[in-house]
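Supplementary Methods S3. Complex input for the manganese (II) ion-bound model.
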Amino acid sequence: MAPLDITTESNQRTLGVRIDGMDLTGPLGDDVVAEIRNLWMRHAVIVFSDQDITPDQHLAFARRFGALQSHTVTDILHPDYPELLVLSNRGRGGAKPINNGGAYWHSDITYEVEPPMGSILHGFIVPPADGDTLYVDMTAAYEFLDEDLKVKLDGVQAVHTYRHRYELMVEAGVRPPQPDEKMAEWGDVLHPVVRTHPETGQKALFVNEGFTARIDGWSDDESRRLLSRLYQHCMEDRFIYRHQWRSNDLVMWDNRCTMHCATPYDLSHERSMHRATIRGNLPV
Ligand code: OGA
Ligand code: MN
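Predicted complex, serialized as structure tokens:
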């Protein structure tokens, strides 16, 4: 097979490579999928240009990397394809409109016991400017922590929950209210603050502003101090890749070793995307 046409999109040392000239709409050989997987594990955020891909083709591509999962909030799912989340400020396709969804630092669905391995986001209508998505390399962020802090974090766990974030999003008018029974389903789950990537063996920080409520067993004050110190460190430019969307970019990220954050744009422009989400396993 010919080598993939790859360019580096950022000055970040790992994240953000763009792959041109590939067609992901049809069946792919196992060798191609293996090569993509290698690239993905090496770079954690990879971008395929010019993917004019249908929902069926998007899902078929995503399934080559694992079983898919849906989202707990059902009114933002594609009405005909429940494994696709619709991020559209126009409610394209009949899902509830979302303005600036994911505009806080997070890794997808860490409030579940087994958070997803990764997400594959297809931006088929993107605004002419802004609405970038920022990514942080949580492997590098961990690597460059002070040694004494690394020792201190060993074996420490954090509490993750969706409830608090969802309440904030309803208040901000970016998500529809949910019945109390639904909110009650979103309990607390515990994850290690530092997880070991099951494929690369590298350690990465695994806390995020979106869903991490507190450090388990620490006082509120100590917990807040640690989390804000970690977030401040992660936000350093050297760990960040800014993805500037082109129409029909398909962006694939590893949820186990990155965080991401949507940024604002002029809402008079349409921004519509579909996300497929690949199941993961218990963080350790
Ligand atoms: C997501 C997400 C950010 C964006 O799809 O999981 O957080 O910029 N998207 O739309
Ligand atoms: Mn997200």
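The CA atoms of residues 52 and 248 lie 6 Å apart. The chain has a mean pLDDT of 94.
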